[in-house]
Amino acid sequence: MTADILVPMFVTVIGAATPLLYAALGELVSERAGVLNLGVEGMMLAGAVAGFATVVATGSHTLGIIAAAAAGAGMALLFAILTLSLLANQVATGLALTIFGIGLSALAGAGYIGTPIPALPKLDLPGLTGLPVIGPILFGQDVLVYLSLAATAAVAWFLARSRGGRILRACGESDIAAHSIGYHVIRIRYGAVLFGGAMAGLGGGYLSLSVTPMWIEGMTAGRGWIALALVAFASWRPGWLLIGAYLFGGVTILQLYLQGSGMLQIPAQVMNMLPYLATVILLTVIASGAGRQRLDAPACLGRPFRPPS
After folding, report:
1. What is the pLDDT of residues 113-150, one digit of tens each?
2. Which of 19, 150, 251, 259 shows the greatest Cβ crowding within 10 Å of its Cβ?
3. Which DSSP symbol is given to 272?
4. Looking at the 3D structure of the chain, how many domains does it have?
């Protein structure tokens, strides 16, 4: 392959991986705290339409990014109230949140279909962006790409090195024990869920502001479900999550390239369904006790918590 092919391919891989990384990273923190939120798809769509509408109204990409994160966090707050305060079933509530997000985003975005906006600006570092091959790949991305990498490093450090991260993981491994030594489990889980919602909103906002700078109904196209599978694939470790997101992005773009070149004779529909089939299998394994232990899932994942009186 020549540089004329490799550079656009790698840039496209980054575009495919970044929204997955945002959504999966937020879900990882939520699940580490013991909360299983299956509403990632709905939160991403809320972030996508909120970010896009804000840019249309204000012309500011910065405000659009903030709005996307806020919309995702708002959806997550609704989920947290229902599951953490009212003790609703987390699986059912997450599925309902996805359905709600799909409908709400379609309604809110109906007036924006076909409205273009400028894409999120790419960085232009003199002397670096113009380097052959590596320049546009490493130094010519937009700010959300670099923010996703920084967020991955920050979450990895937080969970492994900080006192707050250890407390959060304790809430996911043994909520009763964490409560007994004085930690406010519900409050900590609220924070984790809100962070997960904000990150999912950023992932959706990246789609509508950078990848496809326009609003398309259902534009996440199942990426929220893939993000859920990536968390289990990575065994709840941020480093492996980064690898998994870029691996999936690479496989997606590679199969599109192979099909376009005629080198791959497998029907496109079969290739497109594989990530979702893997998601269904992984979620089934997570739901089983033995499978959860083999995947090293947090012990209290999906389990409601009521503080002992």
Report:
1. 989 999 999 888 777 787 887 888 888 899 999 999 99
2. 19
3. H
4. 1
